[in-house]
């Protein structure tokens, strides 16, 4: 057994750089390649996809990446683990098998589900998914899966699962599990760990070269080294890793389905160029309930921006509002006025600001043509220099909320490639 398990990341969100899978597979040795495609907004997007076509509900860009890279991964012995299954891990697994057959390949494909808890009766829910842990992924890998796709697991589970399978950790190996959670948390947002969205970007080489994606060398005790392939863009430093560690955390206790990770125990140290060692992580029992992400359709919205230029900007804004407001029937109308331009700006752009009107309503009609037409019809009948962005026809928007459910109400299930099912206790 090798000293460390090398787990790479090739996606931090649905829409990330599609070439990253090939870059990671060709850039250096890996044991596992993970990809995170899900966020609260993504689940809403996938839910809307399913309203149009019940066969959808997964991240379709993942399929495109596999069409390009599956043969390369199998040849290199790299196993692929992804939450791209979204609302339809079974549908994605079937699609992967179909794509593989078209390529003349026959990988072992498993999927993990049980996270969809809409049947528990959440009022108004378009999607309701419990955040599962990594032990379902581990079970699939232990049974020989080359590709594992899941629904809503925690982002860090994409690293925890392979580590559990590789090192044989028990559910009570809290320190090791917590260490893997930290490694997974660093990897989950892709190139944010290598300098993306980094406040210290002035200290980096800023070129046109794309930022590399991170990888973790995970050890049997849960410690890890965060690094990236040689020759790729960006940087891995104690500062970039720290910045990502602080992303989306609210206290020193980071609650997950497999373990409670104590963030104040983390020790970071420089391990050489583009290498940061993570050690000392402590863990304890996970919470007794699982978090559930619930998305519901909140209604419909539309907006228009009026460009105000030159003198008397506030008076122009007041007149436009007075003209437009009587024609608005949406249940919610919000106006925002940008910063006032300087008196003697040296360009038209510098002398301009924006007045934005945003409308929301449970029905599409008040935010559709009724709103758009009312704004457009002011073009020759309002303030001098009238200019606006073209409003659309209104789009649906979602509302997210967190709920909680007893573990006993969730059936964390692995569907193996040979047709067997296994429920993770």
Explained architecture:
By secondary structure, this protein is α+β, with helices and mostly antiparallel strands. Helices cover 27% and strands 26% of the residues. It has 10 helices and 20 strands. The strands form 3 sheets. It has an 11-stranded mixed β-sheet, sandwiched between helices. Strands 5, 14, 15, 16, 17 and 18 form a 6-stranded antiparallel β-sheet that branches. β19 and β20 form a beta hairpin. α5 crosses α6 and α6 crosses α7. It is globular. The two termini are 27 Å apart. The model has no long low-confidence stretch (mean pLDDT 96).
Give the end-to-end Cα distance, rounded to a whole number of Å.
27 Å
What is the succession of H and E elements?
A: EHEHHEHEEHEHHEEHEEEEEEHEEHEEEE
- Could you give the count of β-strands? 20
Which percent range describes the beta-strand content? 25-35%
Shape verdict:
globular
Helix/strand class: alpha+beta
Largest sheet features: 11 strands, mixed
Q: What is the CA-based Rg, rounded?
A: 25 Å
Task: Classify the helix fraction into a percent range.
Answer: 25-40%
Count, helices:
10
Mean pLDDT: 96
Low-confidence runs of at least 5 consecutive residues: none
Quick structural summary:
The longest helix is centred in the N-terminal third of the chain and has 17 residues. It contains ten helices and 20 strands.
Question: Key features?
Answer:
single chain; 425 residues; alpha+beta; eleven-stranded mixed sheet; six-stranded antiparallel sheet; 10 helices; 27% helix; 26% strand; globular
Topology:
Elements: E1 4-9, H1 20-27, E2 32-35, H2 40-52, H3 60-76, E3 79-82, H4 89-102, E4 109-113, E5 127-130, H5 135-142, E6 147-150, H6 157-167, H7 174-187, E7 214-219, E8 224-228, H8 238-245, E9 253-255, E10 260-262, E11 267-270, E12 276-279, E13 282-284, E14 289-309, H9 313-324, E15 332-337, E16 352-361, H10 369-376, E17 387-388, E18 395-406, E19 413-415, E20 421-423
Parallel strand pairs: 1-2, 2-3, 3-6, 4-6
Antiparallel strand pairs: 1-7, 4-19, 5-14, 7-8, 8-12, 9-10, 10-13, 11-12, 14-16, 14-17, 14-18, 15-16, 19-20
